[in-house]
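#onboarding

Welcome to the new folks! Below is a worked example of what a typical request in this channel looks like: someone posts a single protein sequence, and someone else replies with the predicted structure as tokens. Don't worry about understanding the tokens yet, we'll cover that in week two.

Example request:
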Amino acid sequence: MHTKAYRPPALPTIGGCELRAAGVDWDAVRVPRRIGIHALAFLGNRSGAVIEDPCEPVVYWFVREGSTTGWDVPETRPLGVTQHLVVPPPHRVEGPGPHWRIRPADGRLITDVRALRTAVEAAVAQFAGL
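Example response:
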């Protein structure tokens, strides 16, 4: 008999942030900020919500649960089952600490994983001079 371990969907942290389990309602993709800013420009209004963590410095996109399986874009890291993300409160749009670079407008959290991959790959290629 195999049972699935219980993972709470969210735990409160300091400053109103929550430690949220990836792979429950969404997966996430971690991208270095220098690449993420360019990917964001490529995505334009196709981007969903984005968290920026200036301490790393990185940005995170939310994508559909399970859609990061096989994600292998250089310089990025997918977050799925067994991983967590610090999610800021809805009103936090600047640091210090994690904040929304793009808030979830009208409940729009998710970015299409194919559009994100294309944008990030284009940004990585731009930095590589390809």
